[in-house]
Amino acid sequence: MTDREILRQADYNDQGLRMDKWLAGNTELSRSRIKALIEKGDVNVNGIPVTDPATKVLHGMRYVIKVPPPAAATPEAQDIPLHIVYEDQHLIVVNKPAGMTVHPAPGAPDQTLVNALLFHAKDSLSGIGGVMRPGIVHRIDKNTSGLLVVAKNDKTHQHLSKQFAKHSVERTYHCFVRGGPNPREGRIESRLARSPNNRKKQAVVRGTWDNMEASETGRHAITNYRFLKGYGQMPKASLGTPQFSKIECKLETGRTHQIRVHMAHQGAPLIGDPLYGKQKAFKTSKSDGEIALQTFLSNFNRQALHAYSIGFIHPDSKEFMAFEAAFPEDLAALSDLLEEL
Questions:
Q1: Does residue 141 have an active-site annotation?
Q2: Residue-wise DSSP of 74-126
Q3: Do residues 43 and 22 touch, judged by C-beta distance below 8 A?
Q4: Which end of the chain has fewer CB atoms at under 10 Å, N or C?
Q5: Residue pLDDT, tens place only, 260-317
């Protein structure tokens, strides 16, 4: 199926109205749907894409909405390579690559981990997550690599979900950050909620940094972190202050963007993070190592975060199982370049 187009032309009485509100009132599409299409770049004015829903309507302009075909009611099985770390009749532990979304969503209707799992496991995935999320017990961000456990049946799904709810699943992440956290080891506890300034971001709820009673807004988030290694010397900082650091994070909770928000709030944003981190590597490059790293980072377009290990009680054998996954190629290359500093 191909995209369809909706054409509308503004007259004098439409002048000055919000574009999303005006288009919703002049089409069969809801305002939220219109807003999503605008932000995706699927609305153009006289041939020029406009991505701000609050843009004012101008008299005489032609507005064209490109509406993609409706998504399938259920995800399709797709023959996509999977890195299976462990599998039995109850569950699968998979090492997800960066760039792969976990389950279908409006912005990623296919080529997801779920599409790959449906091809690999056929009909043997838990249905508890619903038709769009079969077998999915937990998630990691699209541009985070690493380990996830997937349930093959409902009993396994329920058992694993209880472990996640009790925070007994052991999850360790390794990340590379700018600067380094102070102190170098600690427990971060806060509430997280959608940022009022950017709908794509999460933010620490005001006053809740190590004071959970300051607000009831947001979701409780706990990250335990530990400094592993420092690289380089931060310019104009005290001796021993690293330019970059390797950090280990162990999660007690699994909130959206949790590590990324907590590290940034701690003054150590993840390298490559488009939402929470400054992206310029150096104001000036003085060494071959810095120049090589700067060149690498100019093409490094994801947060330097990897779900390194996962441990849980097997739902059937009741034995504790733990798995680890080494850095993928891009993070291994980043690690090598940081060592040169």
A1: yes
A2: SPPP------EEEE-SSEEEEEEPTT--SS-BTTB-SSSHHHHHHHHHTT-S-
A3: no
A4: N
A5: 999 999 999 999 999 998 755 555 567 888 889 989 998 999 999 999 999 999 999 9
